Amino acid sequence: MRDRAPISPHMTQPTTTRALSASDIEAFRSLLAIFGSAFSDRETYLSAQPDDSYLRRLLASDTFIAVATFAGTVPIGGLAAYVLPKFEQARNEIYIYDLAVHDRHRRQGVATALITELRRLAVERGVYAIYVQADYGDDAAIALYTKLGKREDVMHFDFLPYGGPGE
Q: Residue 68: which domain range?
């Protein structure tokens, strides 16, 4: 956990960035609201949330990581990531699935703090690499990830578990 002074001179409250535990269900639900707002997809993130028991198991899992930055006790940004056991070697990688910061707190170092904490957790867990996807046109995310890591241009495909292409 990283306690720090305000991330930016525009912030007045000290921030804390830490991994969420099984007891942080309400904080995680706040992150879902931040994700829904940031991605303009409130329906996906808010309409059918899992029950507390499911979230408790997820947050306690060795294969899921949620990290949040708090201003006081209020979450202002977070990330959700998966630990992926590899098959070709006995090692793990982390995939950042979602990362978002409340719109009032963007451009203040929150996303960098989130990734810094995830890196710390990765070292603690002996993780080999962390990776993330950014969409073309998401210039803020691309700039952040370029600043923090090595860029690789790849194609991404979604497959539905049923039907054929485009169904």
A: 2-148
Total of domains in the chain: 1
Q: Are strands 64-71 and 2-4 parallel, antiparallel or unpaired?
A: unpaired
Structure tokens of 147? 């600043």
Domain-embedded: residue 108: yes
pTM: 0.81
For residue range 46-94, list pLDDT tens digits in order.
Answer: 999 999 999 999 999 999 999 999 999 999 999 999 999 999 999 999 9
CATH number at residue 21: 3.40.630.30
